[in-house]
Amino acid sequence: MMAKKPPKPAPRRIFQERLKITALPLYFEGFLLVKRSGYQYEHYWTELRGTTLFFYTDKKSTIYIDKLDIIDLTCLAEQNSTEKNCAKFTLVLPKEEVQLKTENTESGEEWRGFILTVTELSVPQNVSLLPGQVIKLHEVLEREKKRRIETEQSTSVEKEKEPTEDYVDVLNPMPACFYTVSRKEATEMLQKNPSLGNMILRPGSDSTNYSITIRQEIDMPRIKHYKVMSVGQNYTIELEKPVTLPNLFSVIDYFVKETRGNLRPFICSTDENTGQEPNMEGRSEKLKKNPHIA
Q1: pTM score > 0.85 for this model?
Q2: Alpha carbon of 43 to those of 17, 30, 68: distances in Å?
Q3: Where do the PH domain residues begin and end (predicted)?
């Protein structure tokens, strides 16, 4: 039998959207069966970006539904599989163990090679790969070393800076679905451009809190708004049972995961012919002058 052809990469537009959202370089990608503690195996299109695995419901999704930071990987343990043409291994992390299963043994060796390369910062010697695949591992190794150096330098520079009140929004990155718009404007954006997503993060009615506006289609389209309160260094979603999370990215992740991907961040794209993007610049200036816009 002929070996399976490697999966084709996602279209360029999707790649660019994922890069914008994750802000990490792509090293390897493909389908994986993933089993986390307390769950069954789930089939995901998976990307290794930096030292993080991002999981997508399918190859064309731009928004990941889950992610796994593997920088503190303790070991990668291989498992004996009774299934033919399949590789199984376990990622042992400080707080959990995650089982991975690949569609064939060749992709299993590739995943093992790339994961060990970025976590150990060295190319493993005990992987069965072709010369061209080993070259790719060395290229990824150099890219990851460079990325970590740049990240450390950037962190060092940010610590030296003294943040000013006027530029807090610049120094703190926001999720891609954040727009400085009012409740009414957010509703109009979701209604006019449903293909771009159905969830917007926006400023709340004061200068410190936020709101989530979503559009759901169950029996008929419905708009809902949720308050996200800034509490110390954390953010609390005001639900019947409040949920507190460490940052706004986690807030967006929570809504996506809790709805199993039915809620998708609203992200404007100039690559699609869906009409002109909403003009956010004017709103941003107005917000700085009057932080109580809601």
Answers
A1: no
A2: 22, 11, 15
A3: 25-120
